[in-house]
């Protein structure tokens, strides 16, 4: 287990940082202790009150219907609503149609500004178009798009019609896209002629065309002409141009949102687990809507004057919850950037903050550490005085990076270090703007969320000791199931009976602050991206020269963790010379890139003749990791030989 993110001892008893006066005055939640206590004493009352701030077509009959046999939480049963109605129509009806919903900054600096009315109009036109293609409630739609307004429009149009979107990060490979579509069985694929990163074109359509072959459920591919407005789509294989479909439906008028109840999925998002196959995490509309609405509102203290910038890609859960749904439900102006943080230069994001007078900036520890390497001259060259709040997500933020982030942005802004997961849908352990902060701690649970640190039998561990992070009660944005795999869903609740086990370890200090340490399962967080060791290993062994492979995570000063692969070569595949060896290593890395995508490429590959295994043949990654890092090996009684 990595200890590099442990907070400095001595800081924990006395939270060091208190919010500025102005933050305190304006905070939605002034008294965390009181609000938290009330929410835990009466969760139904708490969540029910919040839900009434949104619009429902039919009122719910109860707040939660929990089945302890199947661990199914049906939130707001009996009620129907629609998240796109609440994110768009509700604001337009109240006279906010001309408020800017999205500001988009393209890879090479292009800009698009879209108001709430315009966004609603595009969404409704796309709905008419999707309807004309024969799509119906419950159908799946795979979305393989660069971070562009069309990605947001596509998600919201699906939500409006009750289609289940499955967004696939545009950096994924053909094989990764294909396996996700094989599982989701979409009727439609939405992609683009190209994406852009660091000025380089990414041939998305080529990847999408190859990935779609053999997936018979797909009837059409909708192509966003991001690069070339006259790009010729291949009508013979069911391709249609996104812009033409929108144009055709210009005069069709409004499209009624589908009433969505407690059992109706909003999306499937695939994420890595401990097996080779990514799991399709399913979220349903009503509960997810209430959870993302409230967390966005309270954690970022959303006000009407905000310009909110989250650096994630809607291809991940952070983008789903905190670029698209949560912020738009709060009528926020969202800045969305395509491309890399350090291209054309390391000032990219700071420049955007200055240009658009960003008030809330939600970033990641890896990005902060990358900025640290480039140096203070980049942020200090820009006017960042519009900022009032910072955020961090995806992996533990080490106190040095936390301090740097705070210092270069004026030395006074609170940092919301938000701990949560694809499965939780919403922030779970997080500060609120008015609560005191300890650098490197995600602080305390969000109201309505009951967290504990337990041992593997579910018994609470004493404060100060590390243990497993569990959630003891259902929460509204909880995932509903794993697509087509209820057993995998159940596993989350049965490993520690009756509680949701997150896969993370943490320690709670004597002041009640949580210090997240890292994953204890076979999931590795590289630059905040979640990778399953088994997935990377199966990509490695599909290389013709590789017989066996094991992958571990190593502490990395930039990415949090890096991937190291240990590989046993097949008979007769052993290189004779150093050059051959280095070219084989390169080839293996390239192979993993082709199989999974660039984020899964191992940083190091060690050729070995032996891997530690249990007598039943399971690779003991724990032992490999301990040896690699010079740590105690722990219990090795099950090790063969
Ligand atoms: C895993 C979930 C949360 C949205 C993006 C990632 C790690 C996430 C933090 C944080 C320490 C964090 C955990 C968690 N993680 N945020 N603030 N501090 N660790 O979602 O891909 O589902 O990954 O990310 O290990 O289990 P995800």
Automatic annotation (TrEMBL):
GO terms for cellular component: cytosol. Residues 91-475 form the AMP-dependent synthetase/ligase domain. Keywords: Acetylation, ATP-binding, Ligase, Nucleotide-binding. Residues 32-87 form the Acetyl-coenzyme A synthetase N-terminal domain. SUPFAM superfamilies: Acetyl-CoA synthetase-like. Residues 535-618 form the AMP-binding enzyme C-terminal domain. CDD domains: ACS. PROSITE patterns: AMP_BINDING. Its EC number is 6.2.1.1. GO terms for molecular function: acetate-CoA ligase activity; AMP binding; ATP binding. PANTHER family: ACETYL-COENZYME A SYNTHETASE (PTHR24095), ACETYL-COENZYME A SYNTHETASE 1 (PTHR24095:SF14). This is Acetate--CoA ligase. It comes from Leptospirillum ferriphilum YSK. The lineage of its organism: Bacteria, Pseudomonadati, Nitrospirota, Nitrospiria, Nitrospirales.
């Amino acid at each position: 287990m990595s200890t590099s993110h442990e907070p400095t001892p001595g800081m924990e008893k006395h939270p060091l940082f208190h919010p500025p006066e102005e933050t305190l005055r304006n905070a939605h939640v002034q008294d965390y202790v009181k609000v938290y206590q009330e929410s835990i004493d009466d969760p139904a009352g708490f969540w029910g009150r919040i839900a009434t701030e949104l619009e429902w077509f039919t009122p719910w009959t109860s707040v939660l219907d929990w089945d302890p046999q199947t661990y199914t939480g049906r939130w707001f049963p009996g009620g129907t609503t629609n998240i796109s109605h609440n994110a768009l129509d509700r604001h337009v009806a109240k006279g906010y149609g001309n408020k800017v919903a999205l500001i988009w900054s393209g890879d090479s600096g292009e800009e698009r500004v879209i108001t709430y009315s315009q966004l609603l109009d595009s969404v409704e036109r796309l709905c008419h178009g999707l309807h004309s293609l024969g799509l119906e409630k419950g159908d799946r739609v795979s979305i393989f798009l660069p971070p562009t307004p069309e990605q947001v429009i596509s998600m919201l149009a699906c939500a409006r019609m009750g289609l289940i979107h499955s967004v696939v990060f545009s950096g994924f490979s053909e094989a990764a896209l294909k396996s996700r579509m094989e599982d989701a069985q979409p009727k439609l694929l939405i992609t683009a002629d190209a994406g852009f990163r660091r000025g380089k074109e990414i041939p998305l359509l080529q990847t999408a065309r190859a990935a779609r072959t053999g997936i018979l459920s797909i009837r059409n591919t909708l192509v966003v002409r991001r690069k070339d407005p006259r790009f010729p789509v291949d009508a013979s294989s069911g391709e249609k141009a996104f812009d033409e479909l929108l144009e055709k439906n210009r005069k069709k008028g409004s499209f009624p949102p589908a009433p969505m109840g407690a059992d109706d999925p909003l999306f499937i998002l695939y994420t890595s687990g401990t097996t080779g196959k990514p799991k399709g995490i399913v979220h349903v509309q009503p509960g997810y809507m209430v959870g993302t609405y409230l967390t966005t509102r309270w954690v970022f203290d959303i006000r009407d004057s905000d310009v909110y910038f989250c650096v994630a890609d809607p291809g991940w859960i952070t983008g789903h919850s905190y670029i698209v749904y949560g912020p738009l439900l709060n009528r926020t102006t969202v800045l969305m950037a395509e491309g890399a943080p350090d291209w054309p230069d390391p000032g990219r994001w700071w420049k955007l903050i200055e240009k658009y007078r960003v008030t809330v900036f939600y970033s990641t520890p890896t990005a902060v550490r990358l900025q640290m390497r480039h140096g203070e001259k980049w942020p200090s060259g820009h006017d960042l005085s519009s900022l009032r709040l910072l955020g961090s997500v995806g992996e533990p933020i080490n106190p040095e990076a936390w301090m740097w982030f705070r210092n270069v942005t004026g030395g006074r802004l609170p940092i919301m270090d938000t701990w949560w997961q694809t499965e939780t849908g919403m922030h779970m352990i997080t500060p609120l703007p008015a609560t005191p902060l300890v650098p490197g701690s995600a602080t305390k649970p969000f109201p309505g969320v009951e967290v504990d640190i337990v041992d593997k039998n579910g018994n609470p561990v004493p404060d100060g000791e590390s243990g497993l992070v569990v959630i003891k009660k259902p929460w509204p944005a909880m995932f509903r199931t794993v697509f087509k795999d209820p057993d995998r869903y159940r596993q989350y609740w049965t490993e520690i009976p009756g509680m949701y086990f997150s896969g993370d370890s943490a320690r709670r200090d004597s002041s009640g602050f949580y210090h997240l340490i890292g994953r204890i399962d076979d999931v590795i967080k590289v630059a905040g991206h979640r990778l399953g060791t088994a997935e990377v290993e199966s990509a490695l062994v599909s290389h013709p020269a590789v017989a066996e492979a094991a992958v571990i995570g190593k502490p990395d000063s930039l990415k949090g963790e890096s991937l190291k692969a240990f590989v046993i070569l097949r008979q007769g595949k052993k290189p004779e010379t150093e050059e051959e060896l280095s070219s084989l290593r390169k080839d293996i890395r390239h192979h993993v890139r082709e199989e999974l995508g660039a984020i899964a490429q191992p940083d190091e590959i060690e050729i070995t003749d032996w891997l530690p295994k249990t007598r039943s043949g399971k690779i003991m990654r724990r032992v490999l990791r301990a040896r690699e890092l010079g740590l105690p090996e722990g219990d090795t009684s099950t090790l063969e030989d």
